[in-house]
Amino acid sequence: MSSSTSSEPAKKVDWSATQYLKFGNERTRAVYDLLSQVIPHIESPNPRVMDLGCGPGNSTKVLLEAFPNAQIIGMDSSPDMLQRARATIPGIEFVQGDLYTFSPDPGADLLFSNAVYHWLRRDTRVPTIIRLLESQRSGGVFAFQVPDNYHQPSHFLMRETASLSGTPWSSSFSNTRIGDLEDKERPDLDPIEKPEEWYNALLPYCSSVNIWRTEYQHVLDSANGIVEWVRGTGLQPFINLLPDDKIRDAFVAEYEKRLSDVYKPLANGKVMLAYPRLFVVAVRK
To answer: Beta strands 93-96 and 271-284: pairing type?
Structure first.
C-alpha cells in the first residue's frame, strides 16, 4: 500500500506483487488470525466488505472464502498489486485508491485491512482510521493488523546501515534524518501506537475494542531470506532512494552482513525472524 501525501514515507516507485508473495503463506497467516475474531461479529449472510490495502489479493481471497456471498471490494494504491489481484480473483471488484483520501460507500459491515496502516505517519494514522470507522453502520466491524517491529533488529539495522558515514550511499540519505520522527520524508516508518493508545482512541466510537499482539517466529533459510522478506516491504523506501544498482547492492550487502551478526544460525543452519504484529477488532457503536 502506498500513497502520495507529505505525511508518508519517501515516495516509492511501486510495489512488487511477485516480491511480496515470496512469503505469501507467512504473510497470509495473520489474515486468518485476524479474521477468526471478526467472524463472530458478522451476522449478515451477504455482508458488504471492503479490503483496504488488499495488495495482491491474498487477504481478499481469505475474505471470500469466509463470506462466499459477500459483496467484496478490494482497494490498493499499487497498480502492480491490483493487476495481480484481478488476475487471481477475477470475480471481485478491485479499485485504486489512497488511504489518506479514500472514502468507502457508507454502511459497510466490515472494513478489513492487513498490514497497511504502519505506512501512515503517527499524526495521520489514528485520524485516518477514525474517519473510515465513522463511515460504518452501527454494529459494523473495523478490523486491522499492522507489523509492530520498529525496534526489531530487522528494522533498526535498516536505519543503522542507512546512517553510516563515508559509504557509497551516505549522500543518498543526507537530506533525511533517519530515526527522527519529526522528519516526515525519511524512509523509515514510525513506531506503532501502544495498545492502550488504540483502545482510548477507538472507544468513543465503538461498543467493543479487542486488541492483541502476536510475535510470529518465521524460520528462513538465512539472513538473505530476511533481506528478501523486507525487500518487499520496509526495505523498499530505503532502496528507492539509492541511485543505481551498484550502490543498492552495496547497501543491501552491508545490511545483510549486520543481520548475519544478530540472527544466529539454528541447529539446521536456518535463522528465525521474530515478527510482532498488533491486531485490532473494533465494533461500531
So the answer is: unpaired
CA–CA distances in Å: residue 155 to residues 92, 118, 206, 219: 34, 13, 33, 17
Contacts of 160 (CB under 8 A, 6+ apart): 258
Predicted confidence (pLDDT) per residue in 57-104, tens digit: 999 999 999 999 999 999 999 998 899 999 999 999 999 999 889 999
Cell 490495502, residue located:
53
- In DSSP terms, 75 is beta-bridged to 52, 95
Q: How many other CB atoms are found less than 10 A from the CB of residue 121?
A: 16
Longest C-alpha distance within the chain, in Å? Answer: 61
Strands (E), 169-222: 206-220
Neighbours of 155 (CB within 10 A): 18
CA dist 112 → 60, 190, 263 (Å): 9, 21, 33
Q: Which cell numbers hold the place of 126?
A: 489514528
Take residue 153 and report the three cell numbers written for it.
533488529
Task: Read off the C-alpha cell for 16.
Answer: 512488487
Q: Per DSSP, what are the bridge partners of residue 277?
A: 147, 214
Mean pLDDT of 222-239: 93
Domains of the chain: 17-284 (3.40.50.150)
Cα–Cα distance measured from residue 35 to residue 38, given in angstroms and rounded to the nearest whole number: 5
pLDDT at residue 21 above 90? no
Ramachandran angles phi, psi of 189, nearest 5°: -85, 165
pTM of the model: 0.90
- Answer for the pair 199, 211: CB distance below 8 angstroms, yes or no: yes
Phi, psi of 117 (to 5 degrees): -70, -15
Amino acid 147 reads: P
Q: Which residue has the cell 463511515?
A: 135
8 vs 127: CA distance, rounded Å: 14
- Residue pair 252/260 in contact (Cβ under 8 Å)? The answer is no
